[in-house]
Amino acid sequence: MKRAGWYLLAGAVAGFGGVLGFHGGGTPAPAALGHPKPGGTSAAPAPSAPSAGPARSTGPKARQGSATGQAKSATGSVVGYGYGELSVTVTVRGSQITDVSVPLLRTAEPYSQQLAQQVIPMLKSEVLAAHSARIHGVSGATYTSEAYAQSIQSALDKLHAG
Amino acid sequence: MVAPGSRQGRKRSQALPQPARPRPALARAGLVLAGAGLGAVTALAIVDETGAELRATGGAATFLGSLTGLVGMYLALLMVLLVSRIPAIERVLGQDGLLRWHRRLAPWPISLLIAHALFITIGYAQAARSGLGHQVGVLLTRYPDVLIATVGLGIMCVIGILSIRAIRRRLRRETWWLVHLYMYLALALSFAHVLALGPSFVGHPLTQVVWSVAWAATAGLVLCYRFGLPVVRSMRHRLVVTEVRQEGPGVVSVICSGRNLDKLAIAGGQFFFWRFLTRSMWWQAHPYTVSALPQPPYVRLTVKAVGDHSAAVARLRPGTRIVVEGPYGAFTKYAQQRPQALLVAAGIGVTALRSLLEDMPRNAAPVVLLRGTRPEDLVLRKEVADLVRYRRGRLHELVGTREQAMLDERSLPRLVPDLHRRDIFVCGPEGFVTTIVDLAARLGIPAEAVHHEAYAL
Question: Which of A82, B31, B208, B382 has a Cα at 20 to 30 A from A73?
Fold first, then answer.
């Protein structure tokens, strides 16, 4: 057929533009699901610089007050696990852990992201019940659980040291 | 035995329905749609990628992996559509046109899907900071549906290798065809992991639905046009072998009879896939041209013994039932662009030429060239001569070796002085067709006015 290439190209440009337009101007992109939001209740801001090392400490980002009975929070080091990396922010009041959030969760692909997002709430409730990093973890998500516990422990260490 | 002989005087209009006209605009619309899909999947892979994901360890390789996977699967979808024989497209491009596109496209999906597997493994291994070997194990065992998709990719690779021309030539046509069927299995195996793991699909119900519908529709088209329609047609016409007649050295005509042949819309020059229901032949269907248009209750095909199947056709017994798929082919009068036609055939190519000639009007004045090494190779020459005479045309028989009966820039214009007001229809073995098509190009005849149908041996 004559000029077959041009017809193909015209279609390709239209299809490409169409998807871009739909994605940009359309309904809220479902892709947003892939991007972890910083925990809203955390007093600590999310680490802004992308961190590359598997276990590089980001340091305690904020410490509010020092008197017992007042809430303090710290963000644990970024811990790499098999499918990505995460760090956890812990808020304590006295010896009680009152809140846990995950400001950083980065995975190479959406499947692991989805898994992690299923697992993280379970880990959170385990930590809130145990008031320590000594948790059983979620079976089937051993690596994620270990990384989670490790990051919490480093956050607690920072709080105690401070 | 009653059988159709030369029926140069028959008026088609009173007997047979005409097949639908080819509409090139529909094929062009198909091309634009195919391009739109390609643009869309490329964009899809890009819009779902965020800068942070791309910069993450292994992010670049993972992105390339999902891009190649998505585009590769889309091209595989187009490959299936090209062989699904959608009638509107087939009428324009013809069966061999579709297969040519299919063959030209074939290397792309396979290489893209292999690249996809490599990139994903590398990307995930980088992200997990593990070795490639370890990552392969993790991917196969811990990610859903990856194992069966890998089996599917393996099948595709085997078929891809067998399809390389040098290897394919050594295989029997039937073997190759059977192996080729496994491509459907391979694609089915690969389907699940796309939805379970693809960045453009996980958590995106809209793309999941569109993608699934596209594949389901393609499967439906294949089932409908390659299975359902042939079954319905065969049941409707119930063709059986009536007579097998020797036409020349190694060439036989099979006269079939059937019901409702006055309702069969077929154009001269078209062919069917014929499946003769004998114990040794029922499982394979071969393309043979209809050498005489239906004269209810009869229709005729003419076959030259070049392979196992065509040799077995000569031994068919009257009463053998037949299942047909078709008619296919764009080598018809509808392709003609200019006022008159030059028909050229070599060897068994005369079959398509003969039925095409039969389809031309009484005032067509065609010029016909028949080419053969020996006089007895010009099968059906008596019938062709009658048809040509009835249409006030001219017939030239070129007998001899290639050197003795040469067709070149000097001899062809001498034989056909009004070449520039004629379309050329050429039919025969691949080498002969290529020669004539090249010659036409050198004589300045535009490609749209040159129509060809080659018989691969």
Answer: A82
